[in-house]
Amino acid sequence: MTTISQLSQKTKDLSLQSIQIELKNPNGVQEGYQDFAKELPALSRKRLEKYGIDLSKGYPRRPDHIPIFLDEAYKIRNRPNPNYIERGLNADPEKKALFGAATEVVNLTKYIGTEIVGLQLSDLNEQQLDELALLIAERVVVVFRKQDLSPQKQLEIGEYYGEVEEHPLTGQAKKGITVVWNKFNRGGPLIKFQRGAFAGWHTDLDHEFSPAGITHLHLDSTSETGGDTGFISGYGAFDKLSPSFQKFLEGKVAIHKSAHVYYERDDILSGPKHIEREHPLVVTHPVTGWKSLFVNPAHVVRIKDLEKEESDLVLKYLNEVYAKNLDIQVRVHWQPVKEDEGVSVIWDNRISQHVAISDYNDQWEGPVRHAHRVTSLSTPPVFDPNSKSQREALGWDN
């Protein structure tokens, strides 16, 4: 029989014990090398081995310390880069060095997208890279085909354009070179039927203190058909709005959330939380001086100082403006990719949305889509009330 004094002692003993809880990363990822090297597409393996990427320990590799708590996630790059240089501001407006070295320059549509033919990105000097930055700022997205480009050179170009984002969770070939590969990223085929006018459209890393600026995606392997990437111009989206509605939006602030989630250190049981940051809803590009909508359906959760119902209505309409106006979109076709002839697409995240169109064969047999992404972070976006829209600046309505 247990006495009252014995029960009191047991209770006292329990109160002195701490409860040990093993927290798993809420995003379901593990640190260190992953065992996917043997699954690499043939063309991707040849490129990696050619340029000395060590696959012996596995591929790809996630960071050694993956943040679990919200406060440590907020601290990552939680300041402007004091050494940032907006390279397009240094460029020759006529881009003579870049265009003069190309065999052809093709505008893919009137408002967005240009393809440069006959140039190797690895051969560009600083003057040409500055002119490329200006071209990207004006045309939003630029395509280079038949590129024999090493991951190291891709990283070097990214470092020239800004502080390279070293993703705290995603697998990488080297620090700053993010792997985009469904075998690893999603664990299964991507083919699916998506409903909704703006399913999948997004902007990368808009939750950062200094969001993504110039992003460079290089495909060294792709499926035999499908898998195009769509891009939309934020300049064009802003110009689709009436002058009165433009004025209403200027100066408004949007709340951007992170794609990944983290725990509150002092309130774990409240569940995973997103990083949230505030950015202007209308931004001014620092090179062109043109106004652009800075919003996307994947990450923008609300407009500050509006009622929820008002915010939801406005965001739904703005997302539809992006998704439903084909004249401000371009669809980049990646095929064919051959050995030593990858395809690079470089765009400005500050003035665009993009989507990987989910219609391609990504089974584990045959050629599949494998890419490396290098993202150069910019500066905190701002709105200049004295700036002009693209149409206004270029006189397209005159």
From TrEMBL:
UniProt key word Iron: yes
One CC-aspect GO term: cytoplasm
Domain called TauD/TfdA-like: residue spans: 106-375
InterPro entries, A to Z: AtsK-like, TauD-like_sf, TauD/TfdA-like
Similarity section: Belongs to the TfdA dioxygenase family.
Cofactor(s), names only, from the UniProt record: Fe(2+)
Gene3D superfamilies assigned to the protein according to its UniProt record, in alphabetical order: Clavaminate synthase-like (3.60.130.10)
Protein name per its UniProtKB record: TauD/TfdA-like domain-containing protein
Signal peptide location: none
Gene Ontology MF annotations: 2-oxoglutarate-dependent dioxygenase activity; metal ion binding
Keywords: Dioxygenase, Iron, Metal-binding, Oxidoreductase
Residue segments, region Disordered: 376-398
